[in-house]
Write a structure and sequence with these properties.
mainly alpha
Length: 88
Amino acid sequence: LKMLFEIEKDPVIKTNEQAIKLIKEIEILTCVNLAHAYIKLEEYHYAIKYATQALEKEPENTKALFRKGFAYTKVGELSRARVCLNEV
């Protein structure tokens, strides 16, 4: 990110608000992808953790909701899974 601020003539990010928005978007994408990776590794508690982190920033993120619901089914938390999957 430092590179984005230090471009001499035309910085990609011109304000702190733009930087915060970009960082938030990157965090959400990273968490959703980590949730997916942990599902593939059958580490469902970590998948739930990262999907939850993404949902804290973007509650309507359908990928995060689906991955969290799917992971809950794998750990036997069917009522919690139903809540997540119904929101999708």
